[in-house]
Fold this protein.
Amino acid sequence: MITNLKNIKTIISSKGVKATFQRIKIMEYLLNNKSHPTVEEIFIALVKQIPTLSKTTIYNTLNLFVEKNIVKTLNFSGVETRYDVVAKSHHHFICKRCRKIYDVNVECNFLCDENKVVNGNQIEEVTGYFKGICKKCLNNDKALN
Amino acid sequence: MITNLKNIKTIISSKGVKATFQRIKIMEYLLNNKSHPTVEEIFIALVKQIPTLSKTTIYNTLNLFVEKNIVKTLNFSGVETRYDVVAKSHHHFICKRCRKIYDVNVECNFLCDENKVVNGNQIEEVTGYFKGICKKCLNNDKALN
DNA sequence: TTTTAAATTTGTAATCATTACAAAGTGAAA
DNA sequence: TTTCACTTTGTAATGATTACAAATTTAAAA
C-alpha cells in the first residue's frame, strides 16, 4: 500500500475535516480500493476491523467528504451511489452485462474543463460515463458460438 | 405541439412495442416536456387525464422503452431516475443550488462516439454531465452583494 | 487531573424510489 | 362467444438513504 495512515490523516486534515479513526479507515479503504465501492462494500470490509462500525457513520463520513470535495459520487444505475476519491479527471465504462465498472482515460477536449464558465454557468464537476458490453463479456459471447 | 398521437403511435410501433393508450400518453408527455421528468412528475401530470393510471404502469412502460432503446435514463443525483427521449446525443448541466437541469449541446470529439468499440469494449450509450452553479443562481448571488 | 461542552459515532425507526406479484381488465384471434 | 395472451392496476415488499436521539469520544477550560 502506498498510503500510510499518517499520510491519510494529512489529506483529511488539509481539507478542514477532523481526522477521526473511522474517517481515516474509510479514506484508507477508498484509496486502496479504487473500485468505486458502495456503502455496503465499504461496510462489509471495515466492520471486520471495527466491529462497532455503523453504516450511518459511513454515510455521514462520505457525505462530509463529498461536501469538502475529497470524494465524488457516481450514480450510474439509479440503485446505489458509488464513491471515488477526487483525482485526475477520468470517466467510466459500465458493462451492462456483468455490471463491472472500468476506469476510462480518455482525452476529450471539452468535457474535462472543470472550473470553467460556459454559457454563464460555472462548472465545478464533470462526469462522463459509457455503457455497453465489456471486452470480457464480448469474448464470452464468442466462445459460446 | 409538433407531435400528434398518430405520429407517436408510429414511433412506438416502429420499435416493436404495442402502442397502447397509456404508452402513447407517456411518450407524448416525454416528447412535449423535455425537462427530464421523474416518474412522479409524469404521474402527477397524466393522472389528471387518466384517473385510473397507476405508477406501476409508468415504471413498466419506461423500463420497456429503455429496453427497446426509445428512452434513456439519467441518474444524476442518486435520488430519482429521470427519463429522456433518445435523440441527438447531448449532455446535461445540473445546478447544485436550484437543482434545475439544462441541456448542453457540446461538440466533444470522443464522448459522443456511440456504437464504437474502444479498447475492446463495445460502447452503446454515452452520458456526460456537468455540475455547478447556473447563470441564474450566480446572478442572484451578485444581486445580494 | 477533573469538569464541561462540543463533536462524533451508533442504532433504530422512518422515508422514499422502485420492484414483485397477483388479480383484474382488455383486445384480438379462433 | 370463448379463449388466451398481454397490459394495467393496487398492494405489499425491498433496499438505499436519512432523521433523530442516545451513547461515546475528544478537546478545551478550570
User: Anything to note?
Assistant: Chain A has two domains: 1-85, 88-145. The mean pLDDT of chain A is 85.
